[in-house]
Amino acid sequence: MSTKVLGTFRLGKRRLNRSFSVSFLLFGLLAVFGSFMVLPLIYTVNNAFKPLDELFIFPPRFFVNNPTFDNFYDLVALMGNSWVPFSRYIANTLLITSVGTAGHILLASAAAYPLAKYRFPGSKMLFTIVVLSLMFSPHVTAIPNYMVMSWLGWINTHAAIIVPSLAFSLGLFLMKQFMEQIPDALLEAAKIDGASEYRIFWTIIMPNVKPAWLTLMILQFPALWGTDGGNFIYSENLKPLNYALSQIIQGGIARAGVGAAVALVIMIVPISLFIVSQSSVIQTMATSGMKD
Fold it and tell me: Which of 13, 152, 210, 215 is the most exposed place for a label (fewest CB within 10 A)?
């Protein structure tokens, strides 16, 4: 081995050797691209702590000079003046987000299991339809969604938002691709030992596709967390948190600081979830892959 080869990196049981210059260039490029990706987050955090005079200064400043919590104090005061208890908005959002995310992961996994591990008449056609559905934008399916929810009598209920989220076709596609990596021999051995299909699904399939359902959680949670009810929910008592916060910042220029605080509040929960989950996703991606 050449003496110039200095860096040795591990990934599971694999050893990757690369020279110091290549490693330095690689990490340099990652640092540059990473800094560009984190700039909007840093700008949003700084804006939330800027007083009004700094928010409207021109040219705009990236970092805050005189940080203040006045924007958050004003936000709390406005929330306290709401005629619907603000805890109701939070509870509605938690209900929609938790049930929608968990239900989608469970439904996508249950539907992907037979498509990945069994061959039955029409299985290929069903999966082809799922793949084709990925081509349609949510804006294209908005009117059919509304018509279906209206026929079911679910308009102005949380089900109008939760049920369509369960049928997120990307989740089914992703789960099927992961399940196909699990060796059939492992499932056959479990059946020989007397395990039922339900036990195989919960004790073998689901633990081995943990990267997939963690990824689905990261994808689905922000979408449901940021919903405002759209055209499906009209009752104020059923509105989610994002709707209440968006109404608070409709007061014009005087609430620009509150709007900056609202932007931080809305994004902090999905980002926190990603920070907590991303290490598990990377770890399971690297170590839990199984092949025949």
Answer: 13
Say how many C-beta atoms besides its own lie within 10 A of residue 244's C-beta. 22
- Where is 115: in which H helix or E strand? helix 86-117
Would you say residue 7 has pLDDT above 60?
no
What are the residue boundaries of the structural domains of the chain, listed by start? 79-287
d(CA 256, CA 98): 31
* Residue 128 burial (CB count, 10 A): 10
Query: DSSP strand E in the chain: where?
Result: 7-11, 14-18
CA 78 to chain centre: 29
Residue 246, token pair as written in the block: 């968006």
Q: Which tens digit of pLDDT belongs to each residue from 210-230?
A: 888 888 888 888 888 888 887
Containing H/E element for 235?
none
Helix extents (H) in 153-240: 159-166, 169-179, 184-192, 197-200, 206-208, 210-225
Tokens standing for 196?
């039922």
Structural contact between residues 54 and 65, judged by C-beta atoms closer than 8 angstroms? yes
CA 42 – CA 67 distance, rounded (Å): 14
pTM, to two decimals: 0.76
CATH number of 79-287: 1.10.3720.10
Q: What is the mean pLDDT of residues 39-66?
A: 83
Residue-wise pLDDT for 86-112, tens only, equals 788 888 989 999 999 999 999 999 989
Least Cα distance to 169 among 211, 209, 121, 127 occurs for 127
